[in-house]
């Protein structure tokens, strides 16, 4: 391939994914997932994908969000050979990149791309694909893992934080793709961002987003790198001793691959609105004790909850409070006859950054 200068020239010159991947311009000056086939296959085997998806060529649909210059999504496609694989590129340039590969590379012709702006919220809506028959999904699967849908995504830039929260919120409320139960999601994140969703008890990262992630998912770190030697990552990773250590990629920041296996059966949450309100109110000051934050729940909440909660819960720090206790508090809040009359607006509050 002749020397190219701009990404546009690079995109217009490629003919196969292999050629693109081996080029020094693959993902240059942009977010990318650049790992070799050997590393990606090691990840697939750790995830035990071929045993979890018994007949992917006939049943499985993969939806990849924020697709950039990404070897992981390419290798995943050829590892599982799904019935349908939707790519939602993160920019016009990467859309052109995958569209050219779809046209030029026989190994990429089974990818499906939307023609519209990849940033459109329309892509959270699965109805058009379902109504057309392109996608056939199981809403209430008997298996632990939904055999018809796998969601992947790359959220590795500073502007992607809200997108991750959106996906976790959709899962909590069973919206968009997540109205189909027991869906597995595999998200590439920056380690500093990923820590906010791992649910590590007592850590400063255990805030509202962490509880939402772990209350409605089984969360696991599959692979990571920490060549920047971030102390917070070093302290947290003993919780995930089997995680694969990713190789160093020159001029590329550390990454973490997190598995979110949707599981709404972990806790019996009967009153979702009250649970969400209690969660956001109590975690306004996550390092404080429960007894210190009760007043956020409304006038008279201190007196009510002191009567119905044991001392061990009242004296527990919010960041140490098990989800079971949060569920119990939300049930008690629901039954409180003098709770404030509010029309709860469900919102996604960004956790504070901890640099």
UniProtKB/TrEMBL annotation:
<protein>
    <recommendedName>
        <fullName>Mitochondrial transcription factor 1</fullName>
    </recommendedName>
</protein>
<dbReference type="InterPro" id="IPR001737">
    <property type="entry name" value="KsgA/Erm"/>
</dbReference>
<keyword id="KW-0949">S-adenosyl-L-methionine</keyword>
<dbReference type="GO" id="GO:0003723">
    <property type="term" value="F:RNA binding"/>
</dbReference>
<keyword id="KW-0808">Transferase</keyword>
<dbReference type="InterPro" id="IPR029063">
    <property type="entry name" value="SAM-dependent_MTases_sf"/>
</dbReference>
<dbReference type="GO" id="GO:0008168">
    <property type="term" value="F:methyltransferase activity"/>
</dbReference>
<dbReference type="InterPro" id="IPR023165">
    <property type="entry name" value="rRNA_Ade_diMease-like_C"/>
</dbReference>
<dbReference type="GO" id="GO:0032259">
    <property type="term" value="P:methylation"/>
</dbReference>
<comment type="function">
    <text>Mitochondrial transcription factor that confers selective promoter recognition on the core subunit of the yeast mitochondrial RNA polymerase. Interacts with DNA in a non-specific manner.</text>
</comment>
<dbReference type="Pfam" id="PF00398">
    <property type="entry name" value="RrnaAD"/>
</dbReference>
<keyword id="KW-0694">RNA-binding</keyword>
<keyword id="KW-0489">Methyltransferase</keyword>
């Amino acid at each position: 391939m002749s020397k190219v200068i701009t990404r546009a020239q690079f995109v217009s010159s490629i003919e196969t994914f292999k050629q693109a991947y081996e080029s020094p311009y693959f993902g240059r000056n942009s977010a990318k997932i650049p790992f070799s086939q050997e590393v990606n296959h090691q990840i697939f085997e750790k995830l035990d994908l071929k045993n979890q998806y018994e007949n992917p060529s006939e049943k499985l649909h993969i939806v990849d969000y924020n697709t950039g210059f990404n070897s992981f999504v390419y290798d995943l496609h050829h590892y599982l050979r799904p019935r349908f694989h939707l790519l939602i590129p993160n920019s016009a340039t990467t859309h052109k990149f995958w569209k050219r590969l779809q046209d030029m590379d026989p190994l990429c012709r089974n990818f499906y791309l939307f023609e519209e702006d990849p940033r459109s919220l329309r892509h959270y809506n699965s109805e058009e694909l379902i109504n057309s028959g392109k996608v056939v999904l199981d809403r209430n699967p008997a298996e632990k893992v939904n055999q018809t849908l796998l969601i992947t995504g790359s959220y590795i830039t500073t502007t992607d934080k809200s997108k991750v929260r959106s996906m976790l919120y959709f899962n909590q409320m069973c919206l968009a793709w997540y109205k189909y139960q027991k869906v597995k999601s595999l998200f590439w994140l920056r380690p500093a961002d990923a820590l906010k969703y791992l649910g590590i008890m007592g850590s400063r990262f255990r805030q509202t987003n962490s509880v939402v992630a772990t209350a409605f998912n089984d969360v696991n770190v599959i692979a990571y790198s920490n060549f920047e030697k971030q102390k917070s990552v070093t302290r947290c990773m003993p919780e995930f001793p089997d995680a694969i250590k990713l190789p160093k990629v020159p001029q590329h920041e550390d990454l973490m691959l997190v598995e979110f296996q949707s599981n709404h059966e972990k806790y019996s949450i009967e009153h979702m609105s009250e649970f969400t309100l209690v969660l956001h109110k109590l975690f306004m000051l996550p390092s404080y004790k429960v007894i210190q934050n009760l007043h956020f729940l409304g006038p008279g909440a201190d007196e009510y909850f002191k009567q119905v909660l044991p001392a061990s819960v009242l004296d527990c720090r919010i960041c140490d409070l098990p989800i079971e206790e949060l569920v119990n508090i939300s049930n008690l809040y629901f039954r409180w006859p003098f709770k404030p009359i509010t029309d709860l607006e469900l919102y996604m509050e960004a956790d504070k950054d901890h640099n």
